[in-house]
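Long-time lurker. I teach an intro course on protein structure, and each term I like to show students one example going from raw sequence to a predicted 3D structure in token notation. This year I'd like something fresh instead of my usual example. Would anyone be willing to generate the tokens for the chain below so I can use it in lecture? Attribution to the forum is fine with me.
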Amino acid sequence: MSEGGLYSLATRGAKDVIDFAMPRVLQALTEIKPYPDRMTIADLGCADAGTSLDMIRGAIHHIQNDSPETQVTIIYADQPANDFNALISIVHGRTRFESWVDQFDNAFPLVSGSSFYLRAVPDESLDLVFSATAMHWLSTKPCNITRHVHMVGASGPEFDAFARQAREDWETILLCRAREMKRGSKMVLVNFCRDEQGRYLGNTGGVNMFDTFDEIWKEFVASGRITRQEYENMTLPQYYRTAEEFSSPLVEPESPCFQAGLRLDSLETRVVPCPFSEAYKRNHDIKAFADGLVPTVRSWNQSIFKAGLDRGRDPENRNQIIEDYYAAYHRRVMDSPQGHGMDYVHAYMTISRV
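-- Reply from a regular --
Happy to contribute to a lecture. Here you go:
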């Protein structure tokens, strides 16, 4: 992810996605009453924490409005390479974001440098788990995709390898949470998905965003800017699960996750419109559209694409290739803006620990 707090500044749509989850969060909190003297909430895969500030604020307010003396600990967790300096600055109100820290007497932020593939807290210590737009990242890339940059364009054994890795990873994530969650606790997860109509991030009826990524990199191969091996190395280590893939370990009695006490309360899919394409429909400002969309895309995939480039390249050359790539994407949007965008397609889930 982009560092220095740029992620949250660039990803307005990701905050919209979390805002739509707020009713689920409040309903989950209502269902775990009465509140104990101390409660712990985890925000997993939180990046720089800017997109979830309002959600956390609302959750704390909901708890303390009912039980003013309840002390609430918020644990922000992400992988060790996360920009925790930016996170701490944002959470403590040292940036343009409005902090919740000074708004409550009995609420305390803590940070954990653990990915959601690991247990981040002791057994049975969490009252509420939240995570948004994070668990599509796989623990490892199972293989390179030879004809596309993402699993949505894969087929045959390559697609099967990604599906298998995603299935194993989902079970790992859920089993870790089953250990951490108290009995009677709740988990609200908001994950990228392929919905019932086959829609997914950036593919909701207009220009397919991932096909655009792929086309530009193939142009770079054809022109000799990058090698075929570099193109294949740029495979994004992501998988967009279906509703059935999310649900099955939570509803099948023989599943280790079901046996560990996790139950699916509800699941729905939702499309949240790209804020930049929506603004373009209103104001027809093509440059503002491109200037907003491309940095959003860049905030979450630049590091992967850059890592695919040969390490033997001069650093300046590697940086220039990346700059030229996003410039090419920007030109595509400027030349033909209709249909471009990054609508978010998510599965919204509430899960109980019995």
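Some talking points for your students: The chain has twelve helices and seven strands. The beta strands are 38-44, 71-77, 107-112, 126-132, 181-192, 262-272, 344-353.
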